[in-house]
Amino acid sequence: MGLTGQRPPERPALTPRAWLDSVFGKKANQQPYADEFEAVKANAQFKALPAALQANLLEELGRHAPWTQGRQMVALLGRYGGLAGLPQAKAQQVINLIGGTTRTSTHARDELAKRLADSALWKAAPAVQADVLSKFLEDPTSYPPLSAGAPAKLPGPQQVSMEGPVEVASQPFRPGAEPALRYDVRVGMHRVPVFVPKTPVRAGLHQHTLMQVAQALAQLPSGLLSRIPFITLEAKPNPGDDYWKLNFANFKGSYLTADASSVAIHPTEEPQSIDALASALVHEAGHVVSYSEWGLSAADERWKPWRDAVTKDVVLPSAYAANRVGEDFSETLRAYYAVRGTPAQAELDVLFAGRVAVLKQLALA
Ligand SMILES: [Zn+2]
């Protein structure tokens, strides 16, 4: 059956999948896309929605070309009376949350299906129906952070070349200044100086080669490359690690660290991949940008637009982002650049609308 029918959904079968089959019929899975799109548009509840919400729903439907649970849930929301009972911004948030292909949306869809799979609810007053959606939005466990934390492969690589070395008598590294060699990595129009100490890397630890650093830099977006003043390829662990080791039993030592003017790559106990390095460089370059633009403390007034965006956008880019607002900025960059230029970018543009607006002002999106 199409969505023009007003038959309320039956009592839930045990899984969201089976429940949706009971609502739409199993044949819906083979239904031509265009027909179903028209059926949604012809639905009375859908037609009663404000134009912006209608457009929002159709856009989210468009993200699910085959007839899938994703499309069924978006379509179902279109005929759920509670949607019209929410303030428009909140209704849009619900649609955006369930209407994508990301980890966040997949989980959010299952969660909403569980909450809507109650035939009594479909006969309840609109205010009661809207309340179910409000509670869904208010519960952050309904929509987990976007990334589980694994480094995503960045687009690229770009053309890369290297110049140097040049002798430097005294170069600041994290533990202190010492003689070094300077290499200039050129990626496209950009030049990133990389300083290598003459001291060998501490025995038993692994450090990237200069070539690996160049290959990782070649994956970085141009707008971010221009914001890295220089990189140090450290021979010793981060001096700040002692504090972290005291406070966190499982802390294995810093990999990359940043301040407002540089990124340091520290030696690690286990060797790291180039993709991991590229992803970490995006995160740390994010710190360089945010520290230099808005100050080292996120309590600084200049951080307010980002703090407001985090509140508005609801979803977190990763679990780690929950630690501090500064981490949220860096993790957002990591999530954003992992999908930029792919179809998933449109989803992030919607889920992180507030954050992306700030990134645009910084010429990073
Ligand atoms: Zn960080």
CATH topology of the largest domain: Collagenase (Catalytic Domain)
Strand content range: 5-15%
User: What would you report as the Rg, rounded to the nearest angstrom?
Assistant: 25 Å
**Helix coverage percent of residues?**
40-55%
* Count of domain modules: 2
Tally of contiguous helical segments: 16
Q: Total number of β-strand segments?
A: 6
Average pLDDT level? 88
Q: What structural class is derived from the secondary structure elements?
A: alpha/beta
Straight-line N-to-C gap: 42 Å
Q: Going across the major beta sheet, what is the strand order?
A: 1-2-3-4-6-5
Low-confidence stretches: 1-6
Largest sheet: 6 strands, mixed
Order of helices and strands: HHHHHHHHEEEHHEHEEHHHHH
Describe, in plain words, how this protein is organized in 3D.
The protein is an alpha/beta fold and 365 residues long. The protein folds into 2 domains: 16-142, no CATH class; 160-361, Collagenase (Catalytic Domain) (3-Layer(aba) Sandwich). The protein contains 16 helices and 6 strands. The chain has a 6-stranded mixed sheet with strand order 1-2-3-4-6-5, with helices on one face. The longest helix is centred in the C-terminal third of the chain and has 21 residues, at 274-294. It is elongated. Bound molecules: zinc ion. The site of zinc ion (ZN) has 4 residues, from helix 12 and helix 14. Zinc ion (ZN) binds at residues 283, 287, 327, 330.
